[in-house]
Amino acid sequence: MLSLSIRDKDYSQWVNTLVERYHQRVIRASIKVNTEQLIYNFLLGRDIVEMHVEERWGYGVITQLSNDLKREMPTIEGLSATNLRYCRRFYLLYSQLVAIRPQIGGKFTEDMNFAIRPQIEGELSASEMPPYAGALFSVPWGHLSVFPNMNWRNSIRRKLRGLYRPSKR
Q1: Is residue 116 helix, strand or coil?
Q2: Lowest-confidence range among 48-52, 106-110, 145-149?
Q3: Residue 63: what are its φ and ψ, rounded to 5°?
């Protein structure tokens, strides 16, 4: 096989640019995967809470659900009973933060031509969340799942909201 050895400075810079561009795209893709995983965990926690699964099927249902999910998705990690309980706690901690609310000071009039439409099958879309809620879904799951107690809720909310509110100067 013929191999060319190109020593041109422009060529070398181009190769470096391509490598850097590739690595940037890989990082962006991993962030998107993390965001989607967090949304999945949030929705799983929502299902556990809103379906009252433990009251309906007993306390052992979380362990059974874990086993069933592992059987159906054997290559997927994060389906332990402990992690499913973290998903429940994650939803309970942040469900009000993610809720979509009208803007303060916004006025609704009868002549406005709009409708409030539920999302398909109640799914959560990152593009439809308030901006500060989007920050929540960019934090790694390991950080979110190990908060020691619910007293952190208000502190975390203030920090997340502060990311998207300009400081008063």
Answers
A1: coil
A2: 106-110
A3: -65, -45
* 24-28, 48-52, 108-112: the lowest-pLDDT one: 108-112
Rounded Cα gap, residues 72 and 47, in angstroms: 18
Q: At what angle do helices 81-98 and 9-50 cross, to 10 degrees?
A: 90
Spatial contact of 115 and 109, defined as CB atoms under 8 Å apart: no
For the chain, give percent helix, strand, coil, nearest 5.
60, 0, 40
Tell which residue, 124, 130, 123, has the closest CA to residue 160: 130
Contact 110, 3 (CB under 8 A): no
- Return the SS3 of 122: helix
Residue 37 neighbours by CB distance under 10 Å: 15
Which tokens belong to 14?
A: 């181009």
Tokens matching residue 19: 């490598």
| pTM, rounded to two decimals | 0.62
Would you put residue 112 in left (φ > 0), alpha (ψ -120 to 50) or beta?
beta
Q: Catalogue the long-range contacts made by 147-155 (C-beta closer than 8 Å, 24 or more residues apart).
A: 147/93, 150/92, 150/93, 153/93
The gap between the terminal CA atoms of the chain, to the nearest Å, is: 65
